[in-house]
Amino acid sequence: MNGQQISSIDALESVVGRTPGAMHLKVIDHLDAGALRWIAAAPLVCAGFGDASRLGVTFGGGRPGFAGGDARSLRMPTASLDDPDLARPGAAFGSLFLIPGIGETLRVNGRVEQAGAEEIQVSVEECYGHCAKAVIRSELWAAQPVDAVPGDPAGFIAASRFAALATLGAEGHADLSPKGDPAGCMAQLDGDTLWFADRPGNRRCDSLRNILGRPDVALALLIPGAAQLAVLRGQAALTTEPAARARFEVRGKVPSLAIRVAVSGIEYQVSPALARAGLWPVAPAAQAIDPAALFVEHIKLNRGNGLGARLASAALAVPGAATLLKKGLDKDYKENLY
Fold first, then answer.
1. Which of 18, 49, 141, 337 is most open to solvent, judged by the fewest CB atoms within 10 Å of its CB?
2. Which whole number is the average pLDDT over 217-228?
3. DSSP classification of residue 109
4. Which domains does the chain have, with CATH numbers?
């Protein structure tokens, strides 16, 4: 694999392309009203925590509104997390909030400011909406409750369809990325090596860039409908090796990259957060959430001073901008899912 291993940003961009400037325009540095509504409607958060000595991923959940906050701070009950010990003061934080029935997710990144017996408080640094491709590929919200799941890690991983990948950049910023694929193509475990594919997404490539700077990863995989998780930790590498990519072919499409993880540990566990969230069967959200409208508001709020930011904000100020954006997203989901 060494001859086809990606080891630099230039090599990565030669395969996946550069991140379009528009991707950065949707990122704001606080929780606006739309983000706070999203968090209030979400019964589940996938959260990654990391510092110089440890990187981990865990789930948090409860009734919609279990988490909350204000413009600068995200707060959640300590007991809402499956592994609250990961939330140490000063640790980098990356998360995604999921709402049943909605493919898009809300990403909130920052740093743990306080971690007490009752509450965890995160200082918010980034907030943005993420595209629905991972959720669509996993058919996450089409699942029904599942009672029996494979009892061995390899069997469970082969049956998984959704994952949360936690990485930490060389500068200490955390990222929590959603991954989704049909069973058998989400991930494959060969002994102490895990493989999974890089699929089209929001094209920020934060997790891939982080792996190049710091290969430590933590990955939580789930079978939609079940309350169990397989949580893995290890050292990741990116490769364009044809055989590694070919094992993840779907609908005649072969991914441009595969990720190989030398697994250092696997924990197979029941997730109380998933059980409390009661995701399946999917019920309508109590609040009306419009992801396209959230994306539009975030671009308009973007504080970039460049010409691109000003032009994008002006273009999205016209009536019906959210409707037009939604049509564009739906077209992209249909044509560029793999």
1. 18
2. 97
3. E
4. 2-335 (2.30.110.10)
